[in-house]
Each structure stands twice: as C-alpha cells, then as structure tokens.
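Q: I'm writing up a methods section and want to include an example of the input and output format. Could you take the sequence below and give the corresponding predicted structure tokens, formatted cleanly so I can copy it straight into the document?
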Amino acid sequence: MPLKTVIRPMLAWECATSRLTGAVNTAVRRSDGWEGYNTDVWGAATALRRQWGTTFSSAILLGAGATASSLVVSLRDLGVTSLVVVARDLSRTHDIQKLGRELGIDVRTAHFGESHESADIVVSSLPATAMLTPETLGKLNAAALFDVVYEPWPSALGREWERRGLESISGLHMLLWQAVRQARVFYGESVDEPLPNEELVVTAMRAAVGL
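A: Here is the clean output for your methods example:
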C-alpha cells in the first residue's frame, strides 16, 4: 500500500511507531497540520495475543512491503528474535533487514520455494492476488498462521493450514484491533488508554464482521 509512505512528507507530526516503520495508516487533522499514526503494529500484536495468548520466538514473514515493516515490529513486541523474510525480489528486503537488526532480531532472507527451517508462526503480508505454488506452500512450516488477507477467506495459505489441521487467523482480526487504536486516536486522551465502554464496542464490532 504505497500511500502509507507517500503521505509522510505531508505530515506536521508522526508517532514514534510511524517513524520506526516508515508507514502511516491513520492521519488526523489538527489545528497546526496533519498528524500521522501507525495503528497496524498494535493491531497485529493485539490480534495475535488475543488469539494465541502467547509469545513467539521465531517467525517466517512473507512479503517486504509497507505492511511487512509494521508486522516486523509487531513480531518483536511478541518476543520474536529469529525471522526469515521470504520475497520474490530480495533487493526489496533491505529495509526490512535493517529494521529487524535495529530491533535486535536475527533476520535472514529466502526466495519463495527455497528451503528454510520451521518457525513458530508464518505471517503473510502478501495481497490476496498473490499466487503461491504447491512447492512454495510445502516449504512453509509453522503451527500458526496469520494472513493479512481477509477477502476472500480462507486464502490459499488459510486453506493449506486448514488442510494440515493447524490454526490460522485472517487479517480481519488485525483490522478490528487497529480500528480500536484508531478510535483512541480520534476520540481519546491517549492511544494507550482504553476508551469508555471499549470492550462493549469491540464485542459489537466482532459481531458485525463475524468474528
């Protein structure tokens, strides 16, 4: 999603997470200009915590775009110290590798279809239109899957995890929680403080999208 980076020069202020990831997904008009926020990091980390209630030490990340940088920070927040970034063009992974090293993560890279060790979780930032061959799917080994795709669902990855009898969640979980963070940006005193009746709102949101 290129607009996550294109918008940055237009902002008067950015949150620390936006500066770290280089990605902005929420902009708010204030009296002195536009403020930029990244709610994806917290949204993804919260979705994974709520689903699995645990931390991870290793992960496989598919893709290297603007969303991928946010996912790297989310994975760090969940305890990941070992990361394999899988991409078709490894030259596009340079920023992800740099970010990972800054966060204290051991980052390695691999082309799609290459063999690499298994991990605790596979996290995909690929679009719904991405074509993954059976060979590529067979090289991805982890007990858990988080795929940012939510329409259609299950994705090709989601179907593969269902076939294996393993647990997966779609990007709808991340979408919900980043929206909660956005609501705090728009209406709250602090993004770190829950809004009044926030859990009731989350329950209603879950029901609305079928989670």
